[in-house]
Specification:
The complex is a heterodimer of chains A (748) and B (163).
Chain A: E1 5-9, E2 12-16, H1 22-29, E3 52-55, E4 62-63, E5 74-76, H2 80-95, H3 111-119, E6 142-144, H4 154-163, E7 168-171, E8 178-181, H5 194-198, E9 204-206, E10 219-224, E11 233-239, E12 242-248, H6 261-265, H7 267-270, E13 280-283, E14 286-289, H8 292-306, E15 313-317, H9 323-335, E16 341-342, H10 362-365, E17 370-374, H11 378-381, H12 383-394, E18 398-403, E19 415-418, H13 421-438, H14 454-465, E20 469-473, H15 483-496, E21 500-503, H16 510-515, H17 526-529, E22 536-540, H18 544-547, H19 551-558, E23 564-569, H20 574-579, E24 582-585, E25 594-597, E26 603-606, H21 619-629, H22 640-649, E27 670-675, H23 682-685, H24 688-691, H25 694-697, E28 700-703, H26 705-711, E29 718-719, E30 722-726, E31 734-739
Parallel strand pairs in A: 1-5, 15-16, 15-22, 17-18, 17-20, 18-19, 20-21, 22-23, 23-24, 27-31, 28-30
Antiparallel strand pairs in A: 1-2, 3-4, 3-5, 6-9, 7-8, 10-11, 11-12, 13-14, 13-24, 25-26, 28-31, 29-30
Chain B: H1 2-12, H2 15-29, E1 52-54, H3 69-73, E2 79-85, E3 91-99, H4 108-112, E4 118-120, E5 135-136, H5 138-159
Classes of the chains: A alpha/beta (748), B alpha+beta (163).
Chain lengths: 748, 163
């Protein structure tokens, strides 16, 4: 129980907790204390000395960030003594800081500039030469100008404490002190962009944004990042109808003050020139630019002609579409009398969706004491969820994994079981059986024949010993043909160990898709749509080359002569042009209003930050007009918020999915295909700076020696177009492909 | 009575005409102040704020670093700047337009400029033949600067001791 204590700051009586720093009390009370090294989310370093305050009874001024409050303290932040100290510190800081504010991208939003306006002197007494520091490049995302560095070490502490990868450090002493990366390859963290936000000066600035526009020229618009399950809160900063930069927006319960690099730099994709800007129709194999009216007529006539019965029509949508788009699209499809619709394009067994629910909030994740991560490279898949788990590990939580490869997490893994996709069911069954054995519950029939290994018992033990465990299921299971069983077993394991669960297998806005029932009740799912004799299709921001699990077959199927394909896309794509009959340009991220539902089931609506590029229109408007032209009822919307209201007021239908308990046959050697986080959706694939990072350029097929021998692969060979890397971190019997290349050859 | 006599002599002695003619005579022989513009020009203060120009360093490098402070301070929003990183890594403008219909010649841009790139010249007699002609682009501004650099730097030199 925290006890209130009373202290006095500048004559104002304020309350704090014992052990709370003076600066955090002052911040809460709105009393301004200048600071550079203090950051509310980082540890206290007290090395900039800017926050010196006068404490009665203390002969010297004390730093407010590292001085803890105690009852009866009388603090002065702006009396003669404090002011003199702060001014002196400011003068010292400015000794070596260059006066290049006019060309500094931080100019106008610089903490040093702001504080210098108030505490600096207008005349420098320093006549000696200023220090100049060499710049080592630290990658494609962050521009360094270390001459401007004031050694606050926020970036160093961010790396060590939040990103969990110690990449920057201080070397040298005194005049020679430098903040620099330890390795020459550059920063590799997936959260590295936050260093730009924490840097109080212009030493670390955004590289893609370099020298573009000034901070005061831009409008900041509150919006939501749509790439992952978290829906991080961001500001898009726009100038002349272009998104120029994305910065984090505080939201304690969702993304705190951090955002992932994917959310921060993906805006470059939206500005990419490879956008579809004009409606296009294909007549006798030739593409023609046309007007919206003609293109819409062409599309609706084609649908009428090719889908005489509703059941001949199928719809596929991107998992990154907005709630409104998904809702209208399913209404449109069902209005045509079809139940063939799906968004689970990368699932080789789309029956798993509702087997496992997420039932723990992001803030609760920090309080867990054990996490079992199944089939996931969580750090790259869901950086913000991983960050919460990392925070828990800093408080003593342990983590175990069941994965096809030993991944590079930014916390220690206590138990790791390597298991290939075909053995995942056996491994999970083993863990479940071990759990049942420990808690002496009656064993379900299907576990009778399961063998329990020692590793399974270890994982069961830590799960049972933990008070607040969580089980996280990730993306890799999508390629598994037994994914429904995997999901079921994970939920059983969670039940047996009283664990909470997070289903991170389907990312983006999939919670919206589930909410509006964007999957077939009795009709065809994604795989069936792309393999049966449907004759009319609508594709919403789908790029089969990347998005579909069996891309080769999907493209072939859509290219049939009797198939009529209406494509609503934001980006140009060769393979799409090869099979589409009409391409309607739709607005991309930040160009349309919409709603994102995150892993906590929080629906966050946002408005458009900029106008749609070229002649493209927001997706919901295009679907609405298509529906009107086809005389479908119930599309009388004038605003996307009306659609969201209607979509959210409906309760989703929950259809029970039967999960087979017997193992279906799987090949002896399987492939786990994972895209790099910067190839996970079409917008981020077009973000050029992210593609230049190490994470973005990752492309290797990892395989262990024994499996390589079976497949007759050697180092450097191409496996499905991806260079082979033989190492022992991969489970036997599978190839782990982590790449930014499309699935041209299809994965089985 | 005496006043009437005084007036009589004053009127018939043409004294007022003589006074007028005296001034005329003085002007007739003194130097003329009419300036034969444009062949002749009046002296101009070094602080005169005329047509704007962009300057270069003596080595030929453009001064402007695209900090956009002039654009920010301009009360008439007459300045439009686009910037980029030039191949040598320096910050440069790709577009620098001044709309002279908007410009009020307040000189704030010159005050704001950290590198003395944008300056007011002594030129005040200019005309456009088209409506679009009011917008001078970077090239045009540089041209004015190049042409009048001598006068510009001389004016800065003269004024420097009062700054």
């Amino acid at each position: 129980m925290m006890v209130d204590i009373e202290i006095e700051i500048d004559g104002k009586v304020v309350h704090g907790y014992p052990g709370e720093s003076l600066i955090s009390i002052a911040d809460r009370e709105g009393i301004d204390i200048p600071r550079f090294c203090y950051h509310k989310k980082l540890s206290v370093a007290a090395n900039c000395r800017m926050c010196l305050v006068d404490i009665e009874g203390n002969p010297t001024p004390q730093p407010a960030c590292s001085t803890l409050s105690s009852a009866g303290m009388k603090v002065h932040t702006n009396n003669e003594k404090a002011k003199t100290a702060q001014k002196a510190v400011m003068e010292f800081l400015l000794i070596n800081h260059p006066l290049d504010c006019p060309i500094c991208d931080q100019g106008g939003e610089c903490e040093l500039q702001d504080v210098a306006m108030e505490y600096g002197s207008d005349i420098s007494r320093f006549t000696e030469g200023k220090r100049i520091v060499d710049d080592k490049g630290i990658g494609a995302l962050i521009q360094t100008d270390m001459t401007r560095c004031i050694h606050c070490t926020r970036c160093v502490r961010f790396g060590a404490e939040v990103a969990g990868i110690v990449e920057m450090g201080a070397t040298g002493r005194g005049e020679d002190l430098k903040i620099e990366p330890f390795l020459s390859e550059g920063i590799q963290s997936e959260l590295s962009g936050n260093m730009i936000d924490v840097c109080p000066v212009g030493a670390l600035t955004s590289k893609p944004f370099r020298y573009d526009v000034r901070s005061w020229q831009m409008n900041s618009i509150q919006t939501i990042a749509r790439h992952d399950l978290v829906g991080s809160n961001i500001f898009t900063q726009t100038h002349k109808n272009k998104v120029k930069r994305v910065v984090a927006r505080d939201n304690e319960s969702i993304n705190e003050t951090w955002i992932s690099d994917r959310d921060r730099f993906s805006y470059q994709g939206v500005n990419n020139e490879n956008r579809v800007l004009i409606p296009k129709i294909k007549i006798e194999g030739e593409w023609q630019d046309t007007s919206w009216d003609d293109a819409l007529d062409f599309a609706t006539n084609g649908i009428k002609k090719h889908a005489k019965e509703g059941s001949q029509f199928g719809t596929l949508a991107s998992k990154n579409a907005t709630l409104e788009e998904l809702y209208l699209l399913q209404k449109f499809t069902r209005g045509l009398g079809s139940d063939n619709l799906d968004y689970r394009l990368d699932a080789s067994n789309p029956n798993n969706a509702k087997v496992l629910e997420s039932n723990i909030s992001l803030t609760e994740l920090e309080t867990i004491d054990h996490a079992l991560i199944v089939n996931s490279y969580l750090r790259l898949e869901q950086p913000m969820i991983n960050h919460r788990i990392r925070k828990a590990t800093l408080n003593g939580a342990s983590v175990s994994t069941i994965n096809a490869k030993a991944f590079d997490f930014n916390y220690r893994i206590s138990h790791s079981v390597l298991t290939s996709p075909q053995n995942t069911v056996a491994t999970l069954s083993g863990v479940l059986k071990a759990l049942h054995d420990k808690s002496s519950k009656t064993l379900p029939d299907y576990l009778n024949s399961v063998t329990v290994h020692e590793t399974h018992t270890d994982i069961a033990n830590v799960l049972l010993n933990a008070k607040n465990p969580v089980v996280v299921l990730g993306e890799h299971m999508n390629g598994n043909t037994c994914s429904d069983q995997v999901a079921k077993l994970v939920s059983e394991i969670a039940k047996a160990s009283d664990a909470k669960t997070i289903n991170a297998s389907l990312t983006g806005n999939t919670h919206s898709a589930e909410r509006v029932n964007f999957r077939p009740d009795n009709g065809k799912n994604a795989l069936q749509i792309l393999s049966s004799d449907l004759t009319a299709f609508a594709l919403f921001d789908v790029y089969p080359n990347f998005d579909c699990i069996d891309s080769k077959n999907a493209i072939e199927h859509l290219s049939r002569d009797d198939a009529f394909v209406v494509v609503m896309n934001s980006f140009d794509d060769e393979s799409v042009s090869s099979f589409a009959n009409v391409i309607l340009p739709i607005a991309s991220f930040y160009e349309t209003s919409g709603t994102h539902i995150n892993v906590d089931n929080i629906a966050q609506s946002y408005s458009a930050s900029v106008k749609s590029a070229g002649e493209s229109k927001p997706g919901w408007k295009v679907i609405k007009v298509l529906a009107d032209l086809l005389n479908l009822q119930g599309f009388d919307f004038t605003d996307s918020s009306q659609i969201a209201d209607e979509a959210l007021s409906l309760t989703p239908r929950i259809s029970e999915i039967e999960v087979p308990t017997s193992n279906s046959k799987m090949p002896n050697i399987t492939t786990v295909w994972q895209y790099t986080p910067y190839a996970s959706d079409v917008v981020v694939r077009h973000a050029s700076s992210l593609q230049q990072t190490q994470i973005g350029q990752m492309s290797e097929a990892s395989v262990c020696k024994a499996t390589a021998k079976l497949l007759k692969l050697s180092e450097g060979d191409l496996y499905k177009g991806v260079p082979v890397n033989i190492n022992e971190s991969v489970a036997e019997g599978c190839v782990f492909v982590h790449t930014n290349l499309p699935r041209q050859l299809g994965v089985v | 009575m005496i006043n009437k006599i005084k007036k009589f002599f004053k009127d018939f002695g043409l004294s007022e005409i003589r006074a007028g003619m005296k001034i005329t005579g003085k002007q007739l022989t003194s130097d003329k102040i009419t300036v034969q513009f444009p062949e002749e020009r009046t002296p101009i203060s070094p602080r005169f704020r005329g047509l704007l120009a962009l300057r270069r360093y003596p080595n030929g490098e453009e001064r402007c670093i695209a900090c956009k402070l002039c654009e920010a301070v301009c009360p008439a929003n007459a300045i439009t700047i686009e910037s980029e990183m030039r191949d040598d890594g320096t910050r440069r403008t790709t577009q620098y337009d001044i709309d002279l219909f908007k410009c009020i010649f307040c000189g704030f841009c010159e005050e704001a400029c950290p590198v003395d790139a944008i300056v007011g010249t002594h030129i005040f007699d200019y005309a456009f033949e088209t409506r679009e002609g009011s917008i001078i682009d970077k090239e045009g501004l540089m041209e004015i600067g190049d042409k009048h650099e001598k006068a510009i730097s001389k004016a800065r030199q003269e004024d420097s001791k009062y700054r």
